Amino acid sequence: DKIQAEYTPDMQEWISEKLFDTRINGFNATIKRYAIRSSFFVMLYVVITFLC
């Protein structure tokens, strides 16, 4: 009972908010990384296509 009392809804909200922020940041980083990688492959493909 004591532990539950200390773990207030506000605390829970803050934690979920932090987790959400972290998830969003990680997601953005992944997208950025993927975009960089895919643009690199596109450039590579274009160069190869032009050379062949």
Question: What would you note in describing this structure?
Answer:
The protein contains two helices and no strands. It has 52 residues and is mostly helical. The longest helix has 43 residues, at 9-51. It comes from Ambispora gerdemannii. Keywords: Membrane, Transmembrane, Transmembrane helix.
Largest sheet: none
What sequence of helices (H) and strands (E) makes up the elements? Answer: HH
Strand share of the residues?
under 5%
Using DSSP, what is the number of strands? 0
Fraction of residues in helices?
over 70%
| Whole-number mean pLDDT | 85
Per DSSP, the total helix count is: 2
Residue windows where pLDDT falls under 50 for at least 5 positions: none
Span between N and C termini? Answer: 73 Å
Taking Cα atoms only, what radius of gyration do you get, to the nearest Å?
22 Å
Label the structural class: mainly alpha
Backbone shape: rod-shaped
Transmembrane segments: 34-51
Protein name: 147_t:CDS:1
Organism: Ambispora gerdemannii
Keywords: Membrane, Transmembrane, Transmembrane helix
Structural features:
147_t:CDS:1; transmembrane; mainly alpha; membrane
Secondary structure elements and their pairing?
Blueprint: H1 2-6, H2 9-51
